[in-house]
Amino acid sequence: MLCFHVCAGEIFELKAELNSDKKEKKKEAVKKVIASMTVGKDVSALFPDVVNCMQTDNLELKKLVYLYLMNYAKSQPDMAIMAVNTFVKDCEDPNPLIRALAVRTMGCIRVDKITEYLCEPLRKCLKDEDPYVRKTAAVCVAKLHDINAQLVEDQGFLDTLKDLISDSNPMVVANAVAALSEIAESHPNSNLLDLNPQSINKLLTALNECTEWGQIFILDCLANYAPRDDRESQSICERVTPRLSHANSAVVLSAVKVLMKFMEMLPKDLDYYGTLLKKLAPPLVTLLSAEPELQYVALRNINLIVQKRPEILKHEMKVFFVKYNDPIYVKLEKLDIMIRLASQANIAQVLAELKEYATEVDVDFVRKAVRAIGRCAIKVEQSAERCVSTLLDLIQTKVNYVVQEAIVVIKDIFRKYPNKYESVIATLCENLDSLDEPEARAAMIWIVGEYAERIDNADELLESFLEGFHDESTQVQLQLLTAIVKLFLKKPTETQELVQQVLSLATQDSDNPDLRDRGYIYWRLLSTDPVAAKEVVLAEKPLISEETDLIEPTLLEELICHIGTLASVYHKPPSAFVEGSRGVMHKRLPARTGSGESTESPDVGTIAGGSGTETAPSIIPSQGDLLGDLLNLDLAPPTTTGPPPPTSGMQMGGMDLLGGGLDSLVGSPMPPRHLGGDIGGSAAMGAGFGAVPAVMPASLNAPMGGGLGDLFDLGGGVGMPLGAYIPPKTVWLPAMKAKGLEISGTFARRAGVIQMELTLTNKAMSVMTDFAIQFNRNSFGLAPAGPLQVLSPLSPNQTIEVSLPLSTVGPVMKMEPLNNLQVAVKNNIDVFYFSCQYPISMLFVEDGKMERQVFLATWKDIPNENESQFQIKDCHLNSDAASNKLQASNIFTIAKRTVEGQDMLYMSIKLSNGIWVLAELRVQTGNPNYTVRKERIRIT
Amino acid sequence: MISQVFILSSKGDHLIYKDFRGEAGCDAVNKFYEMVTTLTGDQPPVVMKHKELHYVHIRQGGLYWVATTKADSSPFTIIEFLNRLTALIKDYCGCLSEKSVRMNFALIYEVLDEVVDFGYIQTTSTDILKNFIQTEAVSAKPLSLFDLSNVGLFGADTQQNKVAPSVAATRPIMSSRGEQGGKNEIFVDVIERISVVIGANGVLMKADIEGEIRVKCYMPSCSEMRIGLNEEFSIGKSQLRGYGAAVRVDECSFHQAVRLDEFDTYRILKLCPSQGEQTVMQYQLCDDLPTAPPFRLFSSIERDTGGRLLIYLKLRCDLPPKRSVLHLNNNPALPLFSYSLFSSLSQELSSPDQSAELQPQNKAVHWEIPRFPGGAQLSALFKLEVPGLSSASLQEVGSISLSFELPKYTCTGLQIRFLRLSPIQPGASQRWVRYVTHSDSYTIRI
């Protein structure tokens, strides 16, 4: 290995050379330094000497020194300051190359102290006469933003950057677009790029003149635009289409992305729609003639496109035929696409190919090819017979892994076409002995069990498997158990012994719980009610369909918006693999709109996914804020519609609890009549205390951000019976993240029991069963009081409502935010995790009315630091009405007095874990603003 | 957005490392090498992920060219960029090798600095870059007579085919600026790759051709170049011109510097070539080949009485006889056996310069024919001892694949009519036009 420590002698030598008078010698020395740097040696000791070489008119030497600086300035921030003067001077050099070089390098030195000095030169360079300098400066704004975002905003660089979009030089435009796109990603709500028809027009013009790389920036930016109507969408498509014949595949794919997205808006009967479809095929085919690396990436994308719009490539089947010298990863992708494109028209051709592939050398590939034949049979019904005979041909070859794979897929074919091809069973049985893979053995056993009545020696066959029962894998054991039970139900007379043998093997001699459980179930079924057993075990099974291997539609839509990016290669949304806020936004395809039908731009993916991701910005000071907030919301007069004035919630510190909700609510339209308390962006809380009983449509996301801070010592609490209200349901688990299971829900307090109301929707293609739920430890010890009652399997597109009673005696752990609840839901597909937040009001118990005496005594004893005060604005209820409303939500008025026209209400609340909150509410008649002083104590 | 770019030798040495965005540490380099060397067979190596960092790499010149990214960037952009980068460095340094990269590291850093800024690709055009790049290339290979003995660009013998000396094509472009004052040369190569599948019954099942025209230019001041293609050249299925022997392709794409104003009428491509190599035009043709595929194969497979497997192959070259100097580099015929292993092979070949060997690891027989004139026919008989041969084993004999090289020949019939440079170059300028057809995947099923 290399020695990573440069010995002192070498350093000394380099030092001498660096300080030499001869330019050539200096240059060679700097080169040596950089060479050492590249291999990882530490040459930072030479920093001052290298910086000394900076002031030179030799551009080559200057570049080398700058290269060194970029690498070491960060580790030597104090010394980096020494270079600043030269930088600033270079930024005014008559040579544009040097100006650009200086501004580029300065941006790469990520030292805070330097950024201050960068502003002035950068400002000048952004307005430089030379486009090379301007384009470098544009990128430098993005660099600076990455180091110090605030500085960029304060200095007004963003506006200058926006101006550069109209620059005369396309390279400058492209870099400005790239820089703005990146900055905009960290400010999701800002309208930095300000895409409108005029600016789009400018971008499209620049598109024609840019370098290929600039075209990519611009196309990617265009893809984020939402056209107003189909006409605009068509005109953009028309101007983007020429990019499809570009030699650079990245340009082509970015263009494909724009077209796929905007096509969504075009009416399908439009002539242009057909033309566009035709134009998309050739460039995609061309990609397959590139290097294998590009081919692979292209195939992953084509796989998505074919799932979304199979018509584009339906005539191009042949290009996906495998070449013998393709790398294996390309072959497998091609195979997948072939199946997706298979149809009645081309099935003969496809099958002939697949059969050829089954004789190839690569075992993995051969297996996939055999499997593909089975998938074709399931997909193209008319060809099933042909597929089966092809599989039989393959079984005849007796090649071990081919036979096993063929048996596995024939099982699937039986699942799709029951009672149709059992004539082949005899052939399958011949190969029984050669099966050594669990999957194939299990498949074979399943077939024997399923068709036991038609196989004369089914009992012998199954018995032969039973001999080595303990050595089999679980998969085979389970299959064998079921198959023998099936056999017994079909031929009860001869097989009694066999079934007893297997039941005892499964229940007594096995330590696998799944197997044991299944054994017991069968045993009890058989012994109590054989007729019922027959109905259960021999029940008709749902048919399988080819869609099982398709990507979920919601995920597919998102992936289509990410064509040409890593997401399209991984087939995962970017949020799954990109850290931080970047890429969290979910993109959606635009909705189809008629021309002129709507002037509003469809919300392309800025809203979804925002909920629950942002947490409250500040620490919650005290619980009183919560109370005031609730009061305010509750007592406010009904507002007509539209976004509420953001002031009220904010001023009272409603932000604390509701921070997250506020962000997502402000600006999103609300239903016209939504309870009395539609104010302040905390509809959930308002609703929580409102006397209006109805459940409102769940159009809002109002998660409770924040929590109650560190006020509560956590202890076990008692849940007291009380009736309560139900906040609107919000989506907790989007279908995309849970393989098609969507969960929305809310919390309610019914008859003193906290209920978790869930709506489960199956957006997948397959049936979901075996639901179960579990909570992580949480602040108030919430835990399911019973199992999740989902009785019937959830078939695709079905929705069910489930109510889960909760107790508050579960294990306690402080959560951040305090009212956060982490939930795991399991079904037959997988386990999914999500977190949700419950309204604190749910925890207010019914016996929260404190004795007057106790109240008085306690009120005095509360230390001042526990006290806080705030105002509720715009409440037009009088004190009695307010008191009544609050009482409905377990906030009890203990006493009332009137002082100088002010009503003072004293109130108490008790939480499920025994914490008391005392409050004083002052209502001045005629003044819509209430003042609340509140304090909390803890009684154990 | 590219985070880092690095170049590694095949042994994992760091040759070049440049960080553009400061978001990932340089331990990424070692992590990459670890990942790429421990990759299992079925994992696609193109895009790899470790923690938050995504690696995209290509292999060229025996080196790993790697780019990393943290955002959801386009792998197309990155792969295209890496390919361009290798081309650029090849142009600047003359050839791609560990040695040339090591010797020119300062130049490569300089190029990288201009080509990518903060992860955004700026330009990859030599024309633009030559305004900025200061460092002179160090030629890794000194010019010497030794190189003349090297095999030519396409494996063709240099004297025989009047192909330009190979050393000309591996010269750094920048040296023409320097004191060496290289020759004014321009190379135009028409390269086609043919993929064919011929069914067991001798029917052509699939044939397609991918072609490209590449220009490598060593002229410092070439303002405009006109490349004339066959006048009867047509694009698309409907657009047939004139009678009969039209040269037709399905799809065409052009380098963005190509101006096509005379293309529609005269089939002339106009461009101002930058120094270095660029692909001017790419085209494809599917299925509808203008001529018969160059090779046909007749085979019979049977089991003799001694339980041996007999494979009789007769290979015919259907090229016109005037292409008699057809240079066949090698021709491995690969009957693929998926199952059995052979114990021994005996062979009868029709001429002594051919050779054949058994490759048990590929389950194949490799038959090599160094030269194969047009119109000729060769045959071979392979006898294989296969333990436990059954009649079903005959079904397992897979397809036969050929790989070959046809110099001075294009399957589409595309020709360069003329190559004009304007203004007329001062001094001697040399223009070279070369044609070659490679086999991409030429499969004959049994």
Automatic annotation (TrEMBL), chain A:
Pfam family, one: Alpha_adaptinC2
Beta-adaptin appendage C-terminal subdomain domain boundaries: 844-938
Membrane-topology descriptor: Peripheral membrane protein
Keyword Acetylation found: yes
GO molecular function (one): clathrin binding
Keywords: Acetylation, Membrane, Protein transport, Transport
Annotated region (Disordered), positions in chain: 589-611
Any single Gene Ontology cellular-component annotation: clathrin adaptor complex
Domain of life of the organism encoding this protein: Eukaryota
Keyword Protein transport: yes
Biological processes, Gene Ontology terms: intracellular protein transport; vesicle-mediated transport
Subcellular location: Endomembrane system
Chain ranges of the Clathrin adaptor alpha/beta/gamma-adaptin appendage Ig-like subdomain domain: 725-835
Coiled coil (UniProt feature): none
Gene3D superfamilies: 2.60.40.1150, Leucine-rich Repeat Variant (1.25.10.10), TATA-Binding Protein (3.30.310.10)
Similarity field: Belongs to the adaptor complexes large subunit family.
Protein name per the record: AP complex subunit beta
Species, as recorded: Esox lucius (Northern pike)
Automatic annotation (TrEMBL), chain B:
Protein keywords: Coated pit, Endosome, Golgi apparatus, Membrane, Protein transport, Transport
Membrane topology: Peripheral membrane protein
UniProt xrefs under Gene3D superfamilies: 3.30.450.60, Mu homology domain, subdomain B
CDD domains, sorted: AP-4_Mu4_Cterm, AP4_Mu_N
One Gene Ontology biological process: vesicle-mediated transport
Main location group: other
Short name of one Pfam family: Clat_adaptor_s
Recorded GO CC terms: clathrin adaptor complex; clathrin-coated pit; early endosome; Golgi apparatus
Limits of the MHD domain: 183-445
Localisation per UniProt entry: Early endosome; Golgi apparatus, trans-Golgi network membrane; Membrane, Coated pit
Highest taxon, organism lineage: Eukaryota
Family listed: Belongs to the adaptor complexes medium subunit family.
Function: Component of the adaptor protein complex 4 (AP-4). Adaptor protein complexes are vesicle coat components involved both in vesicle formation and cargo selection. They control the vesicular transport of proteins in different trafficking pathways. AP-4 forms a non clathrin-associated coat on vesicles departing the trans-Golgi network (TGN) and may be involved in the targeting of proteins from the trans-Golgi network (TGN) to the endosomal-lysosomal system.
Protein name as it appears in the record: AP-4 complex subunit mu-1
Organism: Esox lucius
